[in-house]
Amino acid sequence: MLEVMPKFEIRHEDFVRDPGRRAAFHLFHVRSGQTEAILAAGLSDLVRPQWGLDDSAGGEEIERRVALRYLKEHLASVTVLAPHRIVLTAWDRPDLGEGWTVHQVPVELPYERKECKYWRSGEAGPLCGAAHERDRMRGRTTLALCERCGLPSTDILCDNLVYVKTVGVETDQAGLTKRSLVEAQCNVGSEEFTKPERDAKRCIPGGLKCWVQVYEPEEHAVSAETGERNLAAEALDMMDTLNIIFRDQFDADLFRLKQFRTGRVLMAPCTTEDSLALKLQILGDLIDLINSKELGRAQGVTSKTGSINWLAAFLEKVAEGDSAPVIQTLRDIKTVRNQLAAHSVADDFVDACARLGIDFPITDWERAWGQVLSAFLDALRRLQGLLP
Fold first, then answer.
1. Which terminus, N or C, of the chain has the lesser number of Cβ atoms within 10 Å?
2. Taking the mean position of all CA atoms in its chain, how far away is CA 198?
3. How far is CA 309 from CA 29, 260, 303, in A?
4. pLDDT confidence tier of residue 223, bands split at 50, 70 and 90
5. Which of 263, 310, 315, 252 has its CA nearest to residue 285?
């Protein structure tokens, strides 16, 4: 069964640049139970200028926000805590190699924004829930002032920072002009926090070595009340099952799941063409990473390049039955993935849609994704039945 690791302790290690990959990374030490690994999360040089990270005064904090948010997005679906590099990139088809997890730039760039858990909505306007008792402004604030406040984005603050207090400054000429962080306490009394002086602005990744967060991903289970099938979850479970069988019979996994980006994306609703394209991209990448070349060589077979070609050669050697339907389904999924964005009407695209059960032209994105998952799950089950 696919099991999401329940809780992660995250500590910041270092900040590094990788000239060869043209990216900058924050390194995090992550622990879950007795398992631990160093993970790198960061941005490619093609993304950084879009947010002014090279010359903006707030660039460093934005970079920390993005790195930590993408790390947590990755952790939300991992089944094996292994070293990874998670990079936000503008590349369409990056060739990053083993151990890399790639996220393309979101259309609306939501990871740039500052978050504040103390922000409140009052009857007359925004209020700061961390306002000091002696704040003459009585907590009044604005979104613009919150963005410039000395309190860092609260989703990157250390878990041990408590009793946060801010005050507002007002002048007769300009009204409310500033809201500033003036006080906070360290819940565990870290000496780093007090030397040379207490400074809550440093309680962020890379600010103080004692920074720590505990992150517990939300569960992405199907509601027991609705009784609806979650085809993505079934497919992921089936891949786990096949890996167990392949390890037992052939001493190697079939699916290299540690390479797989996010099961969460596959299980999320599919309401637009872009979301269907993203899901197909991830599923296609997973097929590309089938470990069939290693399996084939272990069985003494050869093949043309490509994971599906190798799998076909491997199954021709070991399968107890016709493997052609399995191979055809995998090829069809990749055909749809590669031609969907171009709104293709090529014969191979139309034929692939027909074999997968997708109505053409595609207008119901949720139904189309369900048909792809259903066909993929059926192929996996056929594959299990072919094994000796």
1. C
2. 34
3. 38, 20, 6
4. very low
5. 263
Whole-number Å distance between alpha carbons of 366 and 272: 8
pLDDT at 285: 81
| Residue located via tokens 């992150």 | 215
Length of the chain: 388
Q: What is the pLDDT of residue 173?
A: 57
Does residue 51 sit in helix, strand or coil?
helix
Q: How far is CA 152 from the centre of its chain?
A: 23
CA 348 to chain CA mean position, Å: 32
**DSSP-derived pairing of the beta strands 100-104 and 8-18:** unpaired
Tokens 């517990």 belong to residue: 216
Q: Would you state the pLDDT for residue 383?
A: 92
β-strand 8-18 against 23-32: which pairing, if any?
antiparallel
State whether the Cα torsion 17-288-368-3 is positive or negative.
negative
- How high is the pLDDT of residue 373? 93
Kindly tell me the sign of the dihedral angle through the C-alpha atoms of 138, 143, 145, 148. positive
Cross-strand bridge partners of residue 180: 167
Residue range 149-194, pLDDT digits in tens = 889 999 999 999 999 999 987 665 556 677 888 999 999 999 999 8
- Segment 203-227 shows an average pLDDT of 71
Half-sphere exposure of 319 toward its Cβ, with a 13 Å CA cutoff?
19
- What one-character DSSP code corresponds to residue 166? E
Average pLDDT of every residue of the chain: 82
Query: What angle do helix axes 365-386 and 347-356 make, rounded to 10 degrees?
Result: 70
Please identify which residue in the block is written with the tokens 């979101």: 106
0.70 exceeded by pTM: no
Phi-psi region of 102 (alpha: psi -120 to 50; beta: other; left: phi over 0): beta
Residue 219 buriedness (CB in 10 A; 0-12 / 13-18 / 19+): exposed
**Calpha distance 184→311 (Å, rounded):** 59
- Three-class SS state of 91: coil
> Both tokens of residue 62?
């934005």
Nearest to 211 by CA among 156, 158, 152, 153: 158
Give how far the C-alpha of residue 139 lies from the chain's centroid of Cα atoms, to the nearest Å. 36
At 93, give phi and psi (nearest 5°): -135, 75
